[in-house]
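Researcher: Good morning. I'm working through a list of sequences from a screen, and I'd like to move beyond sequence-only analysis. For each chain I'm collecting a predicted structure so we can compare shapes side by side. This is the next one on the list. No need for commentary yet; just the structure.
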Amino acid sequence: MAVLVEGITYMHEHTTIDLSRIKNIDDTNLNCFEETVKEYKKLYTKGVRNIVDVTVMDMKRNPLYVQKAAEASGINIVQATGFYTERFLPEIVDDYSTQQLAELMVKEIEEGIADTTIKAQIIGEIGSSKDGWTEREKKVFQAAVIAQKKTGVPITTHTTLGTFGHEQVAFFKENDVDLSKVVIGHVDLNGSGEYVLHMLEQGVYVEFDTVGKENYLPDIERVKMLQQIEAAGYTDKVFLSMDITRKSNLEYQEGIGYSYLLDVFVPMMKENGISEDFIQKMLVTNPQRFFSER
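Model: Good morning. Structure tokens for this chain:
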């Protein structure tokens, strides 16, 4: 069975996520099921058929909740295994060996996430900190490589504010990972088209996955980076998404909502000369290829 169905794919989202114990803000406990499903149904009317949910261990993941949201909205939601960044790593990252961590991820891919039968179909978002990584974060990357080679499922990463992406790519190359099975996340937050092009030249995929988060970077700057990427001819390995993690991002709290990507950012790209072909690749074709190359 294909991982994705035909249609638009949001490649980096969280149907439910709870980071509030670290951030001490209830807003970061995204647990508004009905409101999320309402927006997912709206996305469905706009041609969205897939959402890649990259909520992993100690983000308070809830695979049954996500499955219910998929059933209620009609959208195919891909679920993940793995671990996040230093502040959110569970104790087992210390207690388990690298091999044991890898075996846990393999189990979730082959048998089911936690105590469910819902199989993970992507590893990550495995993350590095700003401008570097901790020993525990590196251990997670090492385990993810083992699990990826064993199962063939792709890896998706988190770069804090778009930093340390080049080093992530170098690590995967050094460990003989098939770079066509790796996507480096949050690269748009780096703000440099040249920085992103260097990664694309190595053969990895990249994500412009914080669209709409203009408190980090104005969307027009994202568009300028995409113009640079298209001009250089690297249109086959770029994805789009929004990485919504807060209640205040949703429409019911007057946030921009999930549809912003299609209703506002796509027209902005068109107005600034991004081709329809590149837009379709980022939303439809490139995700399909990423998951089909097993």
